[in-house]
Amino acid sequence: MIKRERIIIKLSGEALSGNRGMVIDPETVTHIAKEIKAAYDLGTLEIGVIVGGGNIWRGKTASEMGMERSSADYMGMIATIMNALALQNALEALGVETRTMTSLNIPEVAEPYIRRKAISNLEKDRIVIFGGGTGNPYFSTDTTSALRAAEIGAKKILMAKNGTDGVYDKDPRYHKDAIKYKALTHHEVLEEDLKVMDSTAAALCKDNNIEIIVFDMNVDGNIKKAADNEDIGTIIR
Question: Which CATH number fits domain 5-236: 3.40.1160.10, 3.30.420.10, 3.30.70.120, 2.30.40.10?
């Protein structure tokens, strides 16, 4: 039996909103599920998915506006669970067996996150969606991606960006002379503060030799291409 590669796909919550002003757009979620299924259908991968909650709630923003940070972050964690359930439903409608596991205990809607149970689900060819962040305030879903990857032994994170096709030396939306990197080291990402992910997540990836591929998820087929090691976006190793 060929050993399958275990990966994490990191999605932004905003990606689930689509272009119609909805918090969660069912058509967009279905499209994303089809893109993930295309990678799943390669038959060579065990896939974990982490989705942010920024389309519903941003704990950091609420905190900056005066809300107590821990409460704001817990609300953000609940938002990620809502997104995880929406994506699970869309994947299962396509015939892909999926489990949502959460760091916050909500047994009526999802399994609690247990590392060995997550690995068992992956080995049974199920896509596992990790909701609820790390279960602790002050940590982003980027950090959750790095932490879960390290815990389950995934050596690659696909950072599916919403409209950004890689890592640049400065924001390409505001600087026409921005230069795109084809490849970077973890050290360079941290040293140059390139904002690929927060510093805690970047350090975790560096310490655990987890490769990161940053690419534009809005291009059809890109999730499959990134999962199949095609030359797109920016690779960090």
Answer: 3.40.1160.10
